Amino acid sequence: MTIEFERFEQTRQEESRDCGLVSFFQRIAEQQPDRTRIVFVCIGTDRSTGDAFGPLVGTLLRERGWPRVIGTLAEPCDAHTVAHAQATVGERDTVIAIDACLGHPKSIGSFIAANRALQPGKAIGRQLPPVGHYSIAGVVNSHGPKAYWKLQTTSLNFVMQMAGKVAAAAEQAWMQPGARSDEELIKLPIPL
């Protein structure tokens, strides 16, 4: 795998596309095609709209049938539980860490994907252990002197849209042969 660092920008013209996340996940799927060996560690809390990005992704992945998701809205994986969550992962598992982050104003809405561990809590000055073999950080708001406040006042609708893109991209990358994509499912007629 040669992915060192990629930034996927979300612009108005790209809003309906996957922002490059599908290709990022597909490269991981080539290395680990077995969905049961993929562990998503979705870091964050349901008590802050910006920091809910990880648990929202986790909830959407679980709803899509992913068997191994740590961190959902019902059971968040936050600063207090992230080390314990890592202890439950096997050596043969491929871990994809997902978390919110703050960035430059022009980067808001983009995704930072890397083939390295994620450093959770960095935006708010926390020192937590690195998580994952691969990582996706969603830039949910701009950084500044009051990082915690920025996460608290981030638009929930915006974060939900970003979370939906990540979950849909993961599903598409590991799509079973013959399965229909989200786009195809949306076009199906609804029986009356």
Automatic annotation (TrEMBL):
SUPFAM superfamilies: HybD-like (SSF53163). Gene3D superfamilies: HybD-like. InterPro entries: Pept_HybD-like_dom_sf, YyaC. Signal peptide: none annotated. This is Sporulation protein YyaC. It comes from Paenibacillus harenae. The lineage of its organism: Bacteria, Bacillati, Bacillota, Bacilli, Bacillales.
